[in-house]
Amino acid sequence: MITPEMRAEMRRLVIREGWKIETVARRYGVHHSVVRRAIASDRDGGGGGAPPVPSALEPFKPYIVERLTDYPSLTATRLLMELHDRGYTHSVSILRRYVAKVRAPRSKKAYLRVETEPGEVAQVDWGSFGHLRIGNTQRPLSAFAIVLKWSRVLYVDFSLDQRMDTFLRMHARAFAFLGGLPRKVIYDNLKSVVLHHVGTTVQFNPAFLAFAGHMLFEPVAAPVRYPQAKGNVENAIKYIRTSFFYGRAFQGIDDVRAQAARWLQEVANQRIHGTTRERPADRHLIEKTRLRALPEHPFDTDLVVPMIVSKEARVHLDTNSYSVPHSVEGRSVVGQTVHLRADDSTVRVVLDGVVIAEHARCWDRHRAIELPAHIDALLERRPSARGPRRRDRLAALSPGAAMYLQEIARRRIHLETEVRKLLRLLDIYGEAEVERGMVAALAQRTFGARYVRTLIDQARFAAGVAEPLDPVVTGNAAADNALVTPHDLEDYDALF
Description:
By secondary structure, the chain is of the alpha+beta class.
């Protein structure tokens, strides 16, 4: 309400002091039209102000009150549609202001904090943390978090998918970290845990029940749309985002896990918890004695997929292909049914209970992973295929490298000779520098291994890098032609 004193002061500021109407309106926190009406009423001698203008909503107020009494949750947008049928032609803003006055304020819920005994309850949830670049692809990055309710001790691990085998593997690692098993574990309605949830009836995923039955804990499904049932882990996901993940740089999934492990040990479980006012690590020393022992035999959490070996002696997983030997003990493997077993880091191919191939798992997409022994065995049967294999290795460096080889093939240059020279450059400089040299030669339209080497040396000179030594040649064809994939020499630091 605008009091007579406020109206008089508005008139004085505008007429006597020369203030702008908008400035006065901001000072009193009112619309500029209120100031204009105050000035006009005083100029007309009204003193007490002009009579209030009846609201355009006045004829419809009884209907609005009636509808909100019967249906308190009706929105202003829904009421606007009904009022249009009754002749209301104005905007929804007036209606919203009136509905806010009529509608009773919503009562806020009160929640009872329930504390449990040590070793009784844990809470589990996934959190989405964007994407992580792996090679030439982007993989979704997810965090698996588990919190023991009594001690508030936290465990977190990161993965590039949320498949069932990954979910179970995360559980096995978490229970090993915690040093035992709680009696109950509370979950959201994940498809990995709950297939159907109708009222109080819950149908659990049979694959997950097999894991829970082996580990001997009771899975509990939280009520639908009731995150407060697992508020500890919900808050933990937020804490992981703000305290650990935000503002950090990662070189890959292994780096994410290593940094997370250090953060758990040094920060997360060493802080003074806001609720218990104690360190989770200290309370965990007590709760750990109340956890149930882990089973003697671990649960098999590998991904196991039966498949048929292709005619190229390969098996496929997640858009990538992995090589297998074309024959085992004189028996052809092509067309045979094998079992592919995979975990986070390794892919194994099993035939009749025997592992016939083992690879490091690739999290990039559309890559061909192969062991030199498998390829050499095939090349012994078809020596003429060595040339195309060499070209394939160079073309796989990048699309620019593949286009460079295509341009050489179009010219009067002996392709196989150039491929051998470029492969020798790989041994000297490595894949990254040769790929950049081929792309630079393509851009300058200069084709030939000698031009590629010149461009590489120019780039190294500009960067202040010395010329590398020529590789040692043994004279043994098998040793000299072996394909060696270079890797970061800092990997050896892990041995110390």
